[in-house]
Amino acid sequence: MPTATVPSFAKINLALKVLHHRPDGYHEIRTIFQTISLADRLTITAEPARRTKLTIDATIDIPDNIILKAADRLLDKLKRRAQVHFLLQKRIPMGGGLGGGSSNAAAVLLGLPPLLGISPPATVLHEIAASLGSDVPFFLMGGTALGLGRGEELYPFPETPVAHGVLVLPGVHVSTPEAYKALQRTTETPFPNSFPLSTWDAPHDWRTFSENDFEGPVFRLYPKVVDAHTALTNAGANPTRLSGSGSSVFGFFESKSAASAAAKRIPGAVLFSTLNRKRYRLAWGRA
Ligand code: C5P
Q: Which tens digit of pLDDT belongs to each residue from 109-156?
């Protein structure tokens, strides 16, 4: 049976602003997504069949598996039937604000069609991705991108130089809906309804305007996240930020060696580098 092993990279949010609560129940956000080198590996084995059968083996137990959901929606939309088996080697921690599940879903949308000899239009993939989760469409693109709407409306940023960082995972699970609720946003649209204009003028300068609105409530509710933030800052990271709604915290360093030295001093820390669109596509091309 045709088989491919594809990468499923994690993301961080270089900046994240939450605006108003929308009538559809989601929040309007402004974010800068960035793919990083930390990745799961997904092996997909597939062939057309009379009846669809989807199975999965994973290195950890994943409830309500988004991989199977993505495959099901894709086959349904394309009116295809297939026998598909997934083997997931999980490295991206769950509930860390690193988009692990969303990235896995996008890996299915990108990796499964070629094995079945089909190439769905990008608009169809985007539509299925957005139906699976707000962060999923970003992983069809990778690199650095501005995310608007609920995060699914994407604008690629110019490529930025590779940066080296360290992730700290405090070992607590932050529920995304709860974190949004804790922000207590109303339905009133704030003004100005945007990032600072400098975002557009100098996107590579994101360090100067980087912020994450979730830091207030998440730091208040989870002291372990504050400890992780403090450990990174004390190790010389600049800036140090919560990713998504947490619980992971990342920090950037001047060089790979400085990041590596800091990672050695913080128990459980993970070294990473940013992955631009070109490298993201190359990794996919190779797979
Ligand atoms: O889209 P996704 O399934 O990732 O969202 C999970 C939950 O997070 C939503 O049900 C909603 O409560 C919250 N959310 C939100 N606004 C967003 C994204 C997510 O309120 N822009």
A: 999 999 999 999 999 999 999 999 999 999 999 999 999 999 999 999
Q: Which residue in this structure is represented by tokens 């797979």?
A: 287
* End-to-end Cα spacing for the chain: 16
Give the position of tokens 């939450």.
18
8-state DSSP, 93: P
In the chain, the largest separation of any two C-alpha atoms, in whole Å, equals: 59
User: In a mutational test of the pocket of ligand 1, which residue from 27, 28, 136, 138 has the highest number of ligand atoms less than 8 Å from its CB?
Assistant: 27
| CA–CA distance, 56 with 43 (Å, rounded to integer) | 10
Look up residue 2 and give its two tokens.
């045709």
Contact 48, 80 (CB under 8 A): yes
CA 102 to ligand 1: nearest atom: 4
Whether 11 is catalytic is yes
Give the C-alpha separation, 235 to 131, whole Å.
40
Cβ atoms of residues 34 and 148 within 8 Å: no
Nearest to 207 by CA among 196, 191, 215, 218: 196
- Is the CB–ligand 1 distance for residue 27 below 6 Å? yes
* Distance from C-alpha of 74 to C-alpha of 128, rounded to nearest angstrom: 7
